Amino acid sequence: MATAAIFSSLRRRRSPSLEAFLSPVDLSGLPLVQTLAAISTEIISSFSGTRFSFQRRNARSLIRKIEIFLVLFESLAESRWGSTPSSSSSSSSTALLCLKELYLLLYRSKILLDYCAHSSKLWLLLQTQSISGYFHDLNQEISTLLDVFPVNDLNLSDDVREQIELLQSQSRRSRLYIDNNDESLRRTFYSFLDGFEHGEIPNTLALRSFFVEKLGIKDSKSCRSEIEFLEEQIANHDGDVEPTGSVINGFVAITRYCRFLLFGFEEEWRIKNNNPKKKSKGDGNDGFITVPKDFVCPISLDLMTDPVIISTGQTYDRTSIARWIEEGHCTCPKTGQMLVDSRIVPNRALKNLIVQWCAASGDSYESEFVTDSPTNEGFVSGLPTKAAVEANKATVSILIEYLADGSEASQTVAAREIRLLAKTGKENREFIAEAGAIPHLRRLLKSENAVAQENSVTAMLNLSIYEKNKSRIMEEEDCLEAIVSVLVSGLTVEAQENAAATLFSLSAVHEYKKRIAMADQCVEALASLLQNGTPRGKKDAVTALYNLSTHPENCSRMIEGGGVSSLVGALKNEGVAEEAAGALALLVRQSLGAEAIGKEESAVTGLMWMMRCGTPRGKENAVAALLELCRRGGAAVAERVLRAPAIAGVLQTLLFTGTKRARRKAASLARVFQRREHAAMRAGGYGFVGDVNGNRDGGNFTTDVSVPMSISISVPVL
């Protein structure tokens, strides 16, 4: 289907070369005429019987012009124009150029007619004036072409010549035509928008008359198709095209409201009897696009529209990190490091990548963590207006009624729509929760309907992104336990993954971390998901475990629930190794955690692998964990660390190429080696020589160790 972007060329006065439409061929003489006749015939047969919803007069007028051109082409073909030497004159050369220009005009006419025949009714209505302008431009170009067309030099019959001359006369007199009925409907649509803008919900009868009787949108499916098309226009919006993305957003909200107001939940919701543990593709069955994790803000979980870098090197969306700092936080939300200062620097490289990805995806993004604005201009133009907010509020009130008292199918549809409304914008997330959606969604978490459960837990995830909703969810009776229950035994893999992501979102609040960790089977289920889940599931699980690890009182629970073992096992998984090492670096700060990690056979080798092959942040976390293992994990663990193969070379590399924190930790670990090596040499040999108190029985190793290793590293002072 054609989109509005195609018509950027319709206002050109200079047409592109033929190669823009066809692979290079010798289009001249008789072959060109035959091609033009074939294209004209195709256009006429395709659109002469079409009932255009809008632009009827303009479309019929253009088709009649093409019919006259077809008569011309057939006459030239019958006379075999261009196939004999006699036709090779200056007039023939002019005619050839005109026919080639006609070739382009026909293709542009075909695109425009196809657009008017198959596009969204609402979009055509909103574009009434612009599309009328496109038709007028084509008429003007036809008039200009006919002014130079050598009609008297082509040996045409009198009848054909008269038709061409009549067409020429009509084209000269043509004026821009905007259908009064189309314009009246457009103004009516805008009046609905204005009503919502002023807090007044339009009359139901007026809405029914507009959508059903005048536009012919007679069922929920048609209404949803209109919504999807309008959302696509927001995604592909050009800043120079009216209406703006924010206005289109308002029309989407109004149409969504009318979908449920006028048609209820007549949409048939077919629940497939799939294997309950089978992971569905995307989000539901709609083929939604997954946003690359690097494009998602760690705070809001939305697609970043204005990525910025803070002093720790982490990237966040400007609005989210600015709010974080304004609330008095002085640490990095992701790493927990202290912020050196509050300066933020635009990450233009990442922003360009996001814009390119959005343009390449070419669709509205039905992901849980994205905005609907996939172009740079759309980031601003797609912001919600008051009208959109008010229309969405009216829609939510209808949805919650069905959540409370509707049938199982209606509740499933309502949960899905709330999930989609909550996927973007704090305004939506705020008023959905204020309207009372959380208790009803909590009840659906226990549903035996797999689709209903998945929609409800995903809706809960989206709502939890808004800071105030975290407390609403945690204070809702039995809600945390219900989320954990989905994590443990959800009916679909996607539901389990989204439950883990919800726990991650909720655990961003420090006072909730202990309560979440203490929930029955929570840590165990996260550990199992980290070990056995899909790549996305592993990511959700490790980030949740990382957040829980930042609370010092959760250490014993992490050990008992298998969290430590799963984190150690995740060190060799590139997708989650960085977060796993970060969580271990937090847990190892406590003696209990250091002891538990030290007992894991693969802990030291896994951390060493991270130091060699991990990301810069992963290397930083790994060396920090190894240093704390030496200090708190006991003599045997420290000796394993110091005996690790090639540790000297890895440390030396890290000292010169690591992050500032990694270099500092590597320097501290190198000093441990040097001091204990010197102590071992003074003791007359290699081997374990006791702790700092002179004990030789391998008791608590609290400071440094000595192993048979020679390390020659110049340790910088950091």
Describe this structure in words.
- This protein has 718 residues and is an all-alpha fold.
- Among the domains are: 1-82 and 90-178, no CATH class; 293-346, Herpes Virus-1, CATH 3.30.40.10; 524-682, Leucine-rich Repeat Variant.
- It is 62% helix and 1% strand.
- The chain contains 33 helices and three strands.
- It has helices at residues 29-47, 56-78, 90-118, 121-126, 128-148, 158-173, 180-197, 204-214, 220-235, 245-263, 318-326, 348-361, 376-381, 386-405, 408-421, 426-434, 437-444, 450-464, 467-475, 479-489, 493-506, 510-518, 522-532, 535-549, 555-560, 563-569, 577-587, 591-599, 603-613, 616-632, 635-642, 647-657, 660-682; strands at residues 307-309, 315-317, 345-346.
- Strands 2-1-3 form a three-stranded antiparallel beta sheet.
- β1 and β2 form a beta hairpin.
- The two termini are 61 Å apart.
- The model is unreliable at 1-25, 268-288, 362-382 and 685-718 (pLDDT under 50).
Brief overview, please?
With 718 residues, the protein is an all-alpha fold.
SSE order and pairing:
Layout: H1 29-47, H2 56-78, H3 90-118, H4 121-126, H5 128-148, H6 158-173, H7 180-197, H8 204-214, H9 220-235, H10 245-263, E1 307-309, E2 315-317, H11 318-326, E3 345-346, H12 348-361, H13 376-381, H14 386-405, H15 408-421, H16 426-434, H17 437-444, H18 450-464, H19 467-475, H20 479-489, H21 493-506, H22 510-518, H23 522-532, H24 535-549, H25 555-560, H26 563-569, H27 577-587, H28 591-599, H29 603-613, H30 616-632, H31 635-642, H32 647-657, H33 660-682
Helix pairs in contact: 1-2, 1-3, 2-6, 3-5, 5-6, 7-10, 7-14, 9-10, 10-14, 14-15, 14-16, 15-18, 17-18, 18-21, 20-21, 20-23, 21-24, 23-24, 23-26, 24-27, 27-30, 29-30, 30-31, 30-33, 32-33
